[in-house]
Design brief:
There is one protein chain. Helix content is 30%, strand content 33%. It is elongated. It has a four-stranded antiparallel sheet with strand order 4-3-6-7. The protein is α+β, with helices and mostly antiparallel strands and 149 residues long. Strand 1 and strand 2 form a beta hairpin.
Length: 149
Amino acid sequence: MKKLHWGHGLAIALGCFIFFILFLIFIFPMGKQNAEMISNNYYEEELQYQDIIDAKKNAAQLEQQPVYKVTSEGMMISFPETIKVDNDKVNFVLFRTEDSNLDVKKEVGLQHNVFLIPKKVLSAGSYTLKLKWTSNKKPYQIDYDIQWK
Protein backbone atom coordinates (compact mmCIF):
# COMPACT_ATOMS: atom_id res chain seq x y z
CA MET A 1 0.00 0.00 0.00
CA LYS A 2 1.31 3.42 -0.99
CA LYS A 3 1.56 6.32 1.37
CA LEU A 4 -0.26 9.54 0.60
CA HIS A 5 2.01 12.49 -0.03
CA TRP A 6 1.31 16.17 -0.55
CA GLY A 7 0.36 15.74 -4.23
CA HIS A 8 -2.40 13.27 -3.36
CA GLY A 9 -3.66 15.57 -0.60
CA LEU A 10 -3.76 18.51 -3.00
CA ALA A 11 -5.72 16.49 -5.58
CA ILE A 12 -8.23 15.33 -2.92
CA ALA A 13 -8.65 18.90 -1.61
CA LEU A 14 -9.17 20.27 -5.14
CA GLY A 15 -11.71 17.52 -5.92
CA CYS A 16 -13.64 18.27 -2.72
CA PHE A 17 -13.63 21.99 -3.52
CA ILE A 18 -14.96 21.38 -7.04
CA PHE A 19 -17.66 19.07 -5.64
CA PHE A 20 -18.66 21.75 -3.10
CA ILE A 21 -18.91 24.47 -5.79
CA LEU A 22 -21.01 22.21 -8.04
CA PHE A 23 -23.28 21.43 -5.08
CA LEU A 24 -23.78 25.17 -4.46
CA ILE A 25 -24.55 25.79 -8.14
CA PHE A 26 -26.87 22.87 -8.94
CA ILE A 27 -28.31 21.29 -5.78
CA PHE A 28 -28.59 24.02 -3.13
CA PRO A 29 -30.77 26.47 -5.13
CA MET A 30 -33.41 23.80 -5.80
CA GLY A 31 -34.50 23.78 -2.17
CA LYS A 32 -34.56 27.57 -1.80
CA GLN A 33 -36.09 28.75 -5.06
CA ASN A 34 -39.79 29.30 -5.61
CA ALA A 35 -40.23 29.89 -9.34
CA GLU A 36 -43.92 30.73 -9.17
CA MET A 37 -45.08 34.07 -10.43
CA ILE A 38 -46.95 36.07 -7.84
CA SER A 39 -49.90 36.29 -10.18
CA ASN A 40 -50.86 34.26 -13.23
CA ASN A 41 -52.39 37.41 -14.79
CA TYR A 42 -49.44 39.66 -14.09
CA TYR A 43 -49.48 41.64 -17.35
CA GLU A 44 -53.25 42.21 -17.35
CA GLU A 45 -53.10 43.39 -13.73
CA GLU A 46 -50.19 45.70 -14.53
CA LEU A 47 -52.31 47.46 -17.17
CA GLN A 48 -55.03 48.07 -14.56
CA TYR A 49 -52.63 49.30 -11.89
CA GLN A 50 -53.71 52.94 -12.24
CA ASP A 51 -57.17 51.88 -11.03
CA ILE A 52 -55.56 50.37 -7.92
CA ILE A 53 -53.56 53.56 -7.32
CA ASP A 54 -56.76 55.62 -7.57
CA ALA A 55 -58.63 53.25 -5.22
CA LYS A 56 -55.84 53.45 -2.63
CA LYS A 57 -55.77 57.24 -2.95
CA ASN A 58 -59.55 57.35 -2.36
CA ALA A 59 -59.16 55.18 0.75
CA ALA A 60 -56.33 57.33 2.10
CA GLN A 61 -58.61 60.37 1.97
CA LEU A 62 -61.24 58.75 4.23
CA GLU A 63 -61.61 60.22 7.69
CA GLN A 64 -62.12 56.76 9.20
CA GLN A 65 -60.85 53.58 7.60
CA PRO A 66 -61.86 49.96 8.09
CA VAL A 67 -59.92 48.19 10.82
CA TYR A 68 -59.12 44.55 11.48
CA LYS A 69 -58.97 42.83 14.82
CA VAL A 70 -57.66 39.35 15.58
CA THR A 71 -60.13 37.40 17.71
CA SER A 72 -60.40 33.81 18.91
CA GLU A 73 -62.85 33.09 16.04
CA GLY A 74 -60.65 34.57 13.33
CA MET A 75 -60.11 38.02 11.87
CA MET A 76 -62.87 40.60 12.35
CA ILE A 77 -63.06 43.44 9.80
CA SER A 78 -65.08 46.47 10.90
CA PHE A 79 -66.18 49.32 8.67
CA PRO A 80 -67.02 52.69 10.26
CA GLU A 81 -70.63 53.87 10.08
CA THR A 82 -69.52 56.76 7.86
CA ILE A 83 -68.66 54.35 5.03
CA LYS A 84 -71.69 53.24 3.03
CA VAL A 85 -70.60 50.27 0.92
CA ASP A 86 -72.48 49.76 -2.36
CA ASN A 87 -74.67 46.63 -2.17
CA ASP A 88 -72.99 45.81 1.18
CA LYS A 89 -70.39 43.76 -0.77
CA VAL A 90 -66.68 43.79 0.05
CA ASN A 91 -63.96 41.87 -1.78
CA PHE A 92 -60.98 40.74 0.21
CA VAL A 93 -57.80 38.90 -0.64
CA LEU A 94 -55.53 37.37 1.96
CA PHE A 95 -52.35 37.14 -0.07
CA ARG A 96 -49.65 34.75 1.14
CA THR A 97 -46.35 35.64 -0.52
CA GLU A 98 -44.52 32.37 0.12
CA ASP A 99 -47.32 29.98 -0.92
CA SER A 100 -50.10 30.96 -3.31
CA ASN A 101 -52.02 27.81 -2.34
CA LEU A 102 -52.81 29.49 1.00
CA ASP A 103 -54.33 32.63 -0.60
CA VAL A 104 -57.95 33.37 0.31
CA LYS A 105 -60.12 35.40 -2.10
CA LYS A 106 -63.78 36.11 -1.45
CA GLU A 107 -66.62 38.54 -1.82
CA VAL A 108 -68.55 38.89 1.41
CA GLY A 109 -71.65 40.70 2.51
CA LEU A 110 -71.45 43.16 5.36
CA GLN A 111 -73.81 42.71 8.27
CA HIS A 112 -73.86 45.71 10.61
CA ASN A 113 -70.66 46.93 8.86
CA VAL A 114 -68.70 43.88 10.08
CA PHE A 115 -67.54 40.57 8.63
CA LEU A 116 -65.42 37.70 9.94
CA ILE A 117 -62.69 35.70 8.25
CA PRO A 118 -62.79 32.38 10.12
CA LYS A 119 -59.55 31.07 11.61
CA LYS A 120 -60.01 27.70 9.88
CA VAL A 121 -59.10 29.27 6.51
CA LEU A 122 -55.90 30.81 7.91
CA SER A 123 -52.61 29.15 8.68
CA ALA A 124 -49.75 30.58 10.69
CA GLY A 125 -47.63 33.05 8.75
CA SER A 126 -47.48 36.41 7.05
CA TYR A 127 -50.38 37.72 4.92
CA THR A 128 -51.28 40.87 3.05
CA LEU A 129 -54.96 41.69 3.50
CA LYS A 130 -56.39 43.62 0.55
CA LEU A 131 -59.86 45.09 1.13
CA LYS A 132 -61.71 46.36 -1.96
CA TRP A 133 -65.13 48.00 -2.07
CA THR A 134 -67.09 50.71 -3.81
CA SER A 135 -69.01 53.56 -2.24
CA ASN A 136 -71.16 55.79 -4.46
CA LYS A 137 -69.62 53.95 -7.45
CA LYS A 138 -66.16 55.11 -6.35
CA PRO A 139 -63.53 52.35 -5.83
CA TYR A 140 -61.57 51.98 -2.59
CA GLN A 141 -58.73 49.68 -1.56
CA ILE A 142 -56.72 49.32 1.63
CA ASP A 143 -53.83 46.90 2.21
CA TYR A 144 -52.74 45.64 5.62
CA ASP A 145 -49.72 43.46 6.48
CA ILE A 146 -50.84 40.80 8.96
CA GLN A 147 -48.95 38.20 10.96
CA TRP A 148 -51.30 35.31 11.81
CA LYS A 149 -50.20 33.06 14.68
